[in-house]
Write a structure and sequence with these properties.
It is found in: Cell envelope. The protein is about 25% helix and about 15% strand. β2 and β3 form a beta hairpin. By secondary structure, it is an alpha+beta fold. It is globular. A 4-stranded mixed beta sheet has the order 6-1-8-7. A two-stranded antiparallel ribbon has the order 2-3. It has a two-stranded antiparallel ribbon with strand order 4-5. The protein has a single domain, classed as Alpha-Beta Plaits (2-Layer Sandwich).
Length: about 180
């Protein structure tokens, strides 16, 4: 499973954040999605997640479906996952002593539903589906943008290996300056 986030379609309405809070975080004030601007900061469900490699208890795991998830009862609360996530996508719930991160709404996936954030996105900026379908959609959207004379890039070099593909017009648009 894979998600495409097209920042060129995001209107920063925060519907994804609200849906995430309602679906996953009723008792937790930290949304798992962290999308305060049009650039998403939620878990990338990396192809080779550092957070799982350095988790001493084995609480963080990558499922066969490609979702980086965790087993609450195994978590030691050591916070190593926060340190090793290259995207800063893991929060920590101090009251429970455990990490909080995007799980692609794994309980919804088990029942055949898509993640809450993609289900409510009014512009289609967030789309979830089978890996091949999402990768094709990403390529098609990039070609469409370029065909209209707009810039279009994928955010990271592993964009097609991670569980999330982020399509954007430029890194500078979101405060990234790779030339410095």
């Amino acid at each position: 499973m894979k998600m495409l986030i097209d920042t060129t379609l995001c209107i920063e309405c925060q519907a994804c954040v609200v849906a995430c809070l309602q679906e996953n975080s009723r008792e937790n004030p930290w949304p798992r999605i962290k999308a305060c601007t049009s650039f998403p900061k939620n878990c990338r469900h990396c192809a080779e997640p550092a957070c799982t490699a350095f988790c001493p208890s084995g609480a963080l795991k990558k499922t066969e479906a490609g979702v980086v998830t965790w087993e609450e009862e195994l978590c030691l609360g050591c916070k190593l996952c926060l340190s090793f996530c290259p995207f800063g996508s893991v929060n920590f719930d101090l009251e429970r002593g455990q990490p909080v991160k995007c799980l692609f709404c794994s309980e919804r996936l088990k029942t055949g539903l898509e993640p809450a954030c993609t289900a409510v996105c009014p512009t289609g900026a967030r789309v979830f589906g089978e890996e091949e379908e999402i990768e094709k959609l990403a390529r098609d959207k990039m070609a469409e943008l370029k065909g209209k004379g707009r810039k279009a890039i994928f955010f990271n070099t592993d964009a097609h290996r991670d569980g999330i593909i982020i399509l954007m017009e430029s890194e500078e648009e979101h405060g990234f300056n790779l030339g410095v």
